[in-house]
Amino acid sequence: MKVEIWSDVVCPWCYIGKRRFETALGRFDHRGEVEVEYRSFELNPNASNQADGTLEEALARKYGLSLEQARAMNARVVDAAAGEGLSYRFDIARRGNTFDAHRLIHLAAASGLQAAMKERLMAAYFMEGRAIGDRDTLVELAAEVGIDPGRARTTLASDEFAADVRADEREAAELGITGVPFFVINRRYGVSGAQPPEVMLKALAAGWDDATPSQPHMKAPQPVASRRGRDQLLTAVARTR
């Protein structure tokens, strides 16, 4: 069974959703037979490599909030992250364009290191204040997960994997994915948002039941809505928060 996860490395709910999915997967009886693939999605494709200002200021501008309201919104996210064992540091986070980070994740996938690269990038941004849009920083992070730094630098200096990132984003649009995280199970079920592990577990069971209909498993969740897409439609089993 395959699970594809569209997300961005600077999306706070994507990291929370990643942890909740991992919790669900750890409880899933057939976890050893689940392939997980991370797909690219940029929340702000037009961001500069190293954006000025704080996250709170950016949030206030984006949603028309006061700085006090933006701080309160961030505080709620920090609390949610803490519940998943993540120590978010929005006060030191350094905003930037994530296109190169996504290219690096594709490079890592070629060496079987995609999951490690995704985790390292998210931890670096949310908890360590690393500059996610800086190529030197990205090369260092790649080396930490076992990617040759020369190979990473050569990739980032070229347009390698750019087409792969764009293809992921184009496919997300074709499937009707407008927000992340979004989890696609066997191209049959979709889960939108950082849902609780219990919801994710039911979605995994639904996907498994589709793939192995003769096997008795946990009762699948009832579809709540159809999404536009290819001939084989995704069915949303959960909505965003």
Question: Helical percent range?
Answer: 40-55%
Shape annotation: globular
The SS-based structural class is: alpha/beta
Uncertain residue ranges: 216-241
Rg from Cα: 18 Å
- Lateral strand order in the biggest sheet: 2-1-3-4-6-5
* Proper CATH architecture: 3-Layer(aba) Sandwich
- Give the overall pLDDT as a whole number: 90
Strand content: 5-15%
CATH superfamily: Glutaredoxin
Order of helical and strand elements: EHEHHHHHHHEEHEE
Task: Count up the helices.
Answer: 9
Largest sheet: 6 strands, mixed
Number of domains: 1
| CATH class type | Alpha Beta
CATH level 3 topology: Glutaredoxin
Say how many strands there are. 6
Distance between the first and last residues' Cα: 26 Å
Describe the structure.
The protein has helices spanning 12-27, 55-63, 67-82, 99-109, 114-128, 135-144, 149-157, 162-174, 197-211; strands spanning 2-7, 35-40, 182-185, 189-192, 225-226, 235-238. The protein is of the alpha/beta class and 241 residues long. The protein has a single domain, classed as 3-Layer(aba) Sandwich (Glutaredoxin), CATH 3.40.30. β1 (2-7), α1 and β2 form a beta-alpha-beta unit. It is globular and about 55 Å long. 40% of the residues are buried.
